[in-house]
Amino acid sequence: MGFCGGPVVVDGGWLADNEELQSEWREAKRRNKIKVASFLKEKTGYFVDPDAMFDVQFAENEELQSEWKEAKRRNKIKVASFLKEKTGYFVDPNAMFDVQVKRIHEYKRQLLNIMGIVYRYKKMKEMSLEERKIKFVPRVCIFGGKAFATYVQAKRIVKFITDVGATVNHDPEIGDLLKVVFVPDYNVSVAEVLIPGSELSQHISTAGMEASGTSNMKFAMNGCIQIGTLDGANVEIRQEVGEDNFFLFGAQAHEIAGLRKERSGVFGPYNYEELMGSLEGNEGYGRADYFLVGKDFPSYIECQEKVDEAYRDQKRWTKMSILNTAGSFKFSSDRTIHEYARDIWGIKPVVLP
C-alpha cells in the first residue's frame, strides 16, 4: 500500500531506491499506487494523482487507516511465517515488529539495540505480569545482517544477539511480550519479506559516521516509522516525513550517563568480557566507547518509551505510518528519473501508443 511516486505495500511490498529498478517491482508499484489513489477518490471524493504528494488530512481517514492496517497485518503474518521457517521461533503477529537489518558494524550500533533489549528484559523481570502489560508494548525484535569474515567484534555482537534471544525467547514469564530473532543469510530476498511487515525500523548509527544509507528510505516507503540519530539520510527523511513522525534520539552532551553493562552470565556461558571491554577502552581500541553506545544509551531508552506510548494509540501510529510513505516521495526512483530527464538529459515524457 503506497502512493505519491513512492513504493507500495499490498500483500508483498515494494522496495526500491535509485539503484534498484527491477521491472516486476516497478509494475507492482504502478498497480498499487493507482489502487490507493482510486480508494481515496471513491471513499472521500478527493482525487489523488498517483505521482502527487499526499494530502495530510487523509492520513486520518478511518477507512484508509483500516485498509492500511489490514495490509500491514497481512505482511506481518508473512514475516511471522518466514521467521518460523528460518529460525524455528514462533512470534505473535499482533506484537510490534521492531527491525534492524544492515551490515553488522560497531558504528551501526547493533550493540546499542541489543543492550536496550537487555535493559527492557531486566526491567520486565523486576515487575509483576500486570505491571509488564501496562508498562511495555509486546515486541518482536528482529535483527539481520552479515559481518566481514575477519571482523571479530562484529561476530561477537551477532553471538550476543543470538544468546540473548535464546534466553528471552524461552522465558515463560515473559512469553510473547518480548522476542528476539536473528535472521540468517540476510539479502535482498529476505528484505522483500521483512521490510513490508516492519513497523519500527532502527537506524541508530553514531552521528556523523553514516555516509547516507538507503535501507532507511525503503522502510519509510513501506510505512515503517523510524527511530534514529541525526545521521546520514535520516536527516532528510525526518525533514520529509515530519519531525512528529520520526523518533529522534542521541544527545551529544558529555554528561550523559554511561551504559550499564551486563556481565552476570545470564545469557549463556560465552565470555563477553572482550566485547564489553571495547566499551571501556580496555582492549587497545583507543578512546573508551568510541562509538558512543554508553553516551547515547539513556537518550535511546527514553526514546523507546515514547515509541511504546505512540504504538498504544493505533490511530496515531497508523497516521504516522501513512505520512512516512507519503513523505518518502523525494527518495523514489520516479522522482530521481524525472529530474534526470528534465535537468540532465533534456527529454520530455511521451504517451506510449
Automatic annotation (TrEMBL):
This is Alpha-1,4 glucan phosphorylase. PROSITE patterns: PHOSPHORYLASE. The lineage of its organism: Eukaryota, Viridiplantae, Streptophyta, Embryophyta, Tracheophyta. Belongs to the glycogen phosphorylase family. GO terms for biological process: glycogen catabolic process. GO terms for molecular function: glycogen phosphorylase activity; pyridoxal phosphate binding. InterPro entries: Glyco_trans_35 (IPR000811), Pyridoxal_P_attach_site (IPR035090). It catalyses: [(1->4)-alpha-D-glucosyl](n) + phosphate = [(1->4)-alpha-D-glucosyl](n-1) + alpha-D-glucose 1-phosphate. Its EC number is 2.4.1.1. It is an enzyme of class 2 (transferase). SUPFAM superfamilies: UDP-Glycosyltransferase/glycogen phosphorylase. Its cofactor is pyridoxal 5'-phosphate. Keywords: Allosteric enzyme, Carbohydrate metabolism, Glycosyltransferase, Phosphoprotein, Pyridoxal phosphate, Transferase. Allosteric enzyme that catalyzes the rate-limiting step in glycogen catabolism, the phosphorolytic cleavage of glycogen to produce glucose-1-phosphate, and plays a central role in maintaining cellular and organismal glucose homeostasis. Gene3D superfamilies: Glycogen Phosphorylase B. GO terms for cellular component: cytoplasm. It comes from the Eukaryota.
